[in-house]
């Protein structure tokens, strides 16, 4: 199965320009939240959920363990809802030319035509494109923008929305639920196995803007689906803020693979809230390539609630030029004979900072469970930093948990050896980088491995290619 992600471009996009129909600005307040709900014509229960989240947000403290938290001023993010001046389209040619050019640069029309069963794109705060192929419709799969799902599938949304990742989890989760807009609902019926991936793409087009999309994936018993999440933004003069949410509910014996290609520009502060619940025999696989942004916090998390459920989390991050990546994964083993494997690889250079922050918890009664965590960092110069904060909570003696962590600097002896064999220095360093990530790439789908190789080519061009 081809995912198509090997064709995505990874250079920064130039500044873009398009018209906006509506913009709600100001500080986070009850009146602002109510105005967003009014504009979206939401039912009372959703409006009340927003207001409860706002109340929690106002009382909750900002997490002080986030390394760059003192540099974030939410009052500077003044555009909290931005609606582009476009009607949602089901054909690319129906989009305004200036918006269509953005997506053509990102090769989304090509990917949709060749590889995807469904695609939705969120521009700023609203969905502007939704494409669902007949193949997906005939299977009975629901793929619909989240704001429409609230109205058309109220029972389904009320059952699962905020069930996996509640707004009480932390301050930025509460902020998300108060301001959320855009995103997608995907429901896969019982025993339906979707052979082609679906994708949601999120684009922030302006500075001093907040994006708060919400993606909800419900895989019914025995179903399977691959979901790709793409993120991008053009070069901006000032910061914008991304506070997205992903909730996955994997029912008995289902399988959900969630792949993120994060290519934010260097002016985006990125909070990515991701969590899954896996019932009996279910599988949830997370794959994340964290490429851009100024600051990133992301911890794909899974609660293994059903016996025999399992999860994998593979995160690769690149931090350069003062970029801070606080990444990792969390796994809660809440049932017997559950398994997890977490792999984290980070490359830091030019004063970048990489932080691995992970949690594995085996609850009482989760007998026969097993987990293995491996996190490695490669530091390419003296200005860069890497930190590791692994946490393991074993509340049941009948469990097998292993953890391995290492931080290595670029070995000049290796560089000297390779250059003595005829390689130029940039080629030698490139070969070392490739060797560092090879074991991770072997675990990934072929297209994702090709994509990550292209990312490293773009990011470390002065060192030479890595493929």
Concise summary:
Belongs to the iron-sulfur cluster assembly SufBD family. The chain has helices at residues 30-39, 44-59, 97-105, 108-114, 134-138, 146-152, 154-160, 171-179, 412-420, 425-441, 446-459; strands at 20-25, 79-84, 118-123, 126-132, 142-145, 183-188, 198-203, 210-211, 214-219, 224-232, 240-250, 255-263, 268-278, 283-290, 295-298, 301-304, 310-320, 324-327, 330-333, 339-349, 353-362, 369-379, 385-394, 399-409. It is of the alpha/beta class and 467 residues long.
Describe this structure in words.
One of its GO terms (biological process) is iron-sulfur cluster assembly. This is Fe-S cluster assembly protein SufB. With 467 residues, this protein is of the alpha/beta class. It has two domains: 294 residues, no CATH class; 57 residues, no CATH class. It has eleven helices and 24 strands. The strands form three sheets. A ten-stranded mixed sheet has the order 4-3-7-10-12-14-17-20-22-24. A six-stranded parallel β-barrel has the order 13-15-18-21-19-16. β3 and β4 form a beta hairpin. α6 packs across α7.
């Amino acid at each position: 199965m081809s995912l198509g992600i090997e064709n995505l471009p990874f250079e920064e996009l130039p500044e873009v320009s398009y018209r906006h129909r509506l913009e709600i600005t100001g500080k986070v307040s009850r009146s602002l939240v109510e105005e967003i709900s009014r504009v979206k014509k939401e039912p009372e229960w959703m409006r009340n959920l927003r207001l409860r989240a706002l109340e929690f947000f106002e009382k909750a403290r900002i997490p002080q363990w986030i390394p760059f938290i003192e540099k974030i001023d939410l009052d500077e993010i003044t555009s909290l809802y931005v609606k582009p001046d476009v009607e949602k389209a089901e054909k690319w040619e129906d989009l305004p030319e200036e918006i269509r050019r953005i997506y053509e640069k990102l090769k989304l029309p090509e990917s949709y035509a060749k590889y995807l069963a469904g695609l939705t794109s969120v521009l700023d705060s609203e969905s502007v494109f939704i494409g669902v192929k007949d193949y997906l419709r005939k299977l009975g799969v629901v793929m619909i923008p989240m704001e429409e799902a609230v109205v058309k599938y109220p029972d389904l949304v009320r059952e699962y929305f905020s069930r996996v990742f509640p707004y009480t989890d932390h301050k930025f989760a509460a902020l998300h639920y108060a301001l959320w807009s855009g995103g997608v609902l995907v429901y896969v019926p019982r025993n339906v196995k979707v052979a082609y991936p679906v994708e949601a793409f999120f684009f922030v087009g302006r500075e001093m803007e907040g994006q708060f999309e919400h993606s909800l994936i419900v895989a019914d018993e025995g179903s399977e689906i691959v979901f790709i999440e793409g993120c991008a933004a053009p070069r901006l003069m000032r910061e914008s803020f991304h506070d997205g949410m992903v909730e996955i509910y994997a029912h008995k014996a289902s399988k959900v693979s969630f792949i993120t290609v994060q290519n934010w520009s260097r002016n985006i502060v990125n909070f990515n809230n991701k969590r899954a619940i896996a019932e009996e025999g279910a599988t949830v696989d997370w794959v994340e390539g964290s490429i851009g942004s100024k600051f990133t916090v992301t911890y794909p998390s899974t609660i293994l609630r059903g016996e025999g459920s399992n999860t994998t989390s593979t995160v690769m991050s690149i931090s350069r030029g003062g970029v801070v990546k606080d990444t990792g994964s969390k796994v809660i083993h809440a049932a017997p004979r559950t398994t997890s494997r977490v792999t984290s690889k980070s490359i830091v250079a030019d004063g970048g900072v990489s932080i691995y922050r992970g949690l594995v918890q085996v609850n009482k009664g989760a007998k026969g469970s097993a987990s293995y965590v491996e996190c490695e960092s490669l530091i390419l110069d003296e200005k860069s930093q890497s930190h590791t904060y692994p946490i393991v909570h074993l509340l049941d003696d009948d469990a097998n948990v292993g953890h391995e962590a290492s931080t290595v600097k670029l070995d000049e002896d290796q560089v000297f050896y390779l250059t003595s064999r005829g390689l130029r220095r940039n080629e030698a360093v490139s070969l070392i980088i490739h060797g560092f990530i090879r074991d991770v790439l072997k675990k990934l789908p072929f297209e994702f491995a090709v994509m990550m190789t292209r990312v490293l080519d773009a990011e470390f061009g002065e060192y030479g290619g890595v493929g």
